[in-house]
């Protein structure tokens, strides 16, 4: 199943005037009217990466997130067995409110359903982890162009050689996203993203990719390559794919994540995450 | 006359326990006991670049500073003919309180006295302009090493091809200071110096020097060259030498500045300039 760019079709499905209403969009996703990327939907609102684990692994995973908060900023953790996430939206039902899920068994992808109600269990705990969509919106609002957005591509992501701090079975490299920026925009981007510690915060690196173990920017490990022009610096942020890589490496008997790009749309506004 | 690094000798002149007291240090300078660099003296306190001009040029110069605030952040402007700067220190007498001055006629350096009382006129206006010592202290307090400080050198400064916005006779290139930093420190330095808009604020450039018209980092236009290691980025800040370059270019019939590195020590604390 392919996941294509959402925005133009989304407007026709949702109506341009309602595409900014998080609860409305979430309701349509719940009813199965949208099974693709959430990029551009309800774009003033915080979207989140989702990880659903049995309670027996949840404590280790929460410790992993705490120890690697820049890559794994936790926006909410559910009660075991509860599909609600009341701090993120009064009506959220995590079994139905993502456009598409990924079901994993022993580290292997086994299914990509649009509803996980049949798989729900009393011991499952949901983690919602901040995502770079929030700070990308702040960058664009400040007039900083993002090439992958302009070109309708997914952001380029790489496994760095920066190691995360392990907790229980969870470990592995920090995955970073890269955005090419001119120096003045890179400086401004440090300022802007520093205001958003809950969605990865300031960059972790800029300049020479080899210093963080990236051999070739033209071959990202996830997402799509974008060109870096001669007058640009590659700027690297900790990425929410990091916990997914740690989960894959842990080869858990069972877990569920969102499908790439098909995020949970919350009622929080991106600006509510700004720290000053 | 050579101006050498102040700190070790300063301690023996002033006594280690009093070297942090701005008014005490200023009093000793006033009495002629110190005629050199102020680097490291009263280091919790704001130090300032000084420009003293006839009132007939002062309005143009103030407009020049306003239009180029990143390079020329004005901390105080005196009343014409008044040697006092009460917002910077109750007892300041600008005629005596710098270790050494430079007297300029038609753009030429004609004298470097330690007291300008004989030259004082009723039409002279004093400008005190923020200096990078303030943010350097904040960087070092955050554990970021500065190579020129470690090596006891003056910071490396370059005429960039970034043009300032002219006002009256004042114009010319932005002079930038350069500090080599590893990427993580460069990112942290953007965060820290952004808090100090009154002393040049965030960097204006990082990475490729050629993009701002600097052909060779090994040959600074002012100050001392420092090595940039392979894993470092050169990081560039707007520099308080910019207004001096504009004044030299204007070839004013008469003006006075501080001698390089021999700054006005004020009663303000560096932390009072932090914007958040």
What can you tell me about this protein's structure?
Chain A is an alpha+beta fold and 276 residues long. Chain A folds into two domains: 7-132 and 244-273, PSTPO5379-like (3-Layer(aba) Sandwich); 139-243, PSTPO5379-like domain (PSTPO5379-like fold, 2-Layer Sandwich). Chain A has helices at 7-14, 22-30, 55-67, 133-141, 147-150, 183-194, 241-250, and strands at residues 45-54, 74-77, 101-105, 108-111, 124-130, 156-163, 173-182, 205-206, 232-238, 255-258, 264-269. In chain A, the strands form two sheets. In chain A, strands 1, 2, 3, 4, 5, 10 and 11 form a seven-stranded antiparallel sheet that branches. In chain A, strands 6-7-9-8 form a four-stranded antiparallel sheet. The radius of gyration of chain A is 18 Å and the shape is globular. The A-B interface holds A 183-184, 186-187, 190-191, 194, 202-208, 211, 231, 233, 276 and B 183-184, 186-187, 190-191, 194, 202-208, 211, 231, 233, 276.
Relevant terms:
homodimer, 276 residues, alpha+beta, PSTPO5379-like, PSTPO5379-like fold, 2 domains, seven-stranded antiparallel β-sheet, four-stranded antiparallel β-sheet, 11 strands, globular, disordered N terminus
